[in-house]
Amino acid sequence: MIHIEGLSFGYRKTRLYDGFQLRLDQPGVYGLFGRNGSGKSTLLKLLAGLLFPQAGRVSVQGHEPRHRDPRLLAQVMLVPEEFHLPDLSPEALRRTHAAFYPRFSREAFGEYLDVFELERDRRFGEMSLGQKKKAVMAFALASFTPVLLLDEPTNGLDIVGRDQFKAIIARPEHRERIVVISTHQAHDLERILGHVLFVDAAKLALSAPMPALARALSMGVADDDAALAGVEGLIYHEQMGTQRPYVARNRGDAPGSVHLELLYKALSLNKAGVLDAMRQAEVAHV
Ligand SMILES: Nc1ncnc2c1ncn2[C@@H]1O[C@H](COP(=O)(O)OP(=O)(O)OP(=O)(O)O)[C@@H](O)[C@H]1O
């Protein structure tokens, strides 16, 4: 469980969070979105106890991460966007670090390394950046911490690597975890996300399960301006040649399709329109 109440945090020159609230009570895969510099990585570090709130309370699995209680550290795994690894092999990493995570599965680690096509005994110093990232993610996934925080996990992975990552995270053994993924790769990850969080202007602008978004919003591509003019409840549209991808209110009973990249742009440029559609559809948000 993750509970944040009244969080304020800023760096010397940048105020990032002010009265920020967030509650994640259910297991699932949460996509954390926001513009560059909106504070996503900072939020993950606050949850992992690497940064401390200046006001308010952050609670993860019933502990305040700032105390860095070993009982919590065994339950939370953060894979930062940039990391430094000792020059070990994946197998040596397991031998030296798995003991910190009581639920770590040696068997799953081996399977994930196989999925990622990594050799257990090859040293990190001999691996490419993407291969190192896969090795660290295989370890993090196999740790089975109840809370898993991934900062831009697919950055630096090739197309096959992204698919491998999605295939692993969608496996049933991860269903009981809270997985928070900060990403700009909205389209890439939309099939595995169950819930969307959007951070904007020091607040949580949107927190909604994917099915709720599908009930409230309709997204598609109009062939031209005339077709776009026929779309009711238009919230956002853009131009791609003659085509007009759009986000509109879903006025029917059937759930619409959710394209996270379009939603991201709609939220960035017409947040009020999206939130209004959520209110009108009476689906939970924030
Ligand atoms: N150690 C630091 N010292 C001072 N300012 C920082 C520090 N780390 C981050 N910042 C600033 O805080 C803001 C938020 O940074 P953060 O990395 O959390 O954003 P982000 O949403 O993850 O960004 P991106 O999408 O670009 O990865 C940025 O303006 C950044 O310059």
Automatic annotation (TrEMBL):
Q: Key word Iron present in the record?
A: no
Q: Which residues form the ABC transporter domain?
A: 2-226
Q: Which UniProt keywords apply?
A: ATP-binding, Nucleotide-binding
Gene3D superfamilies attached here? Answer: P-loop containing nucleotide triphosphate hydrolases
Q: Extract one GO molecular function annotation from the record.
A: ATP hydrolysis activity
Looking up InterPro entries in the UniProt record yields: AAA+_ATPase, ABC_transporter-like_ATP-bd, P-loop_NTPase
Q: Please identify the protein, giving its name as recorded.
A: ABC transporter
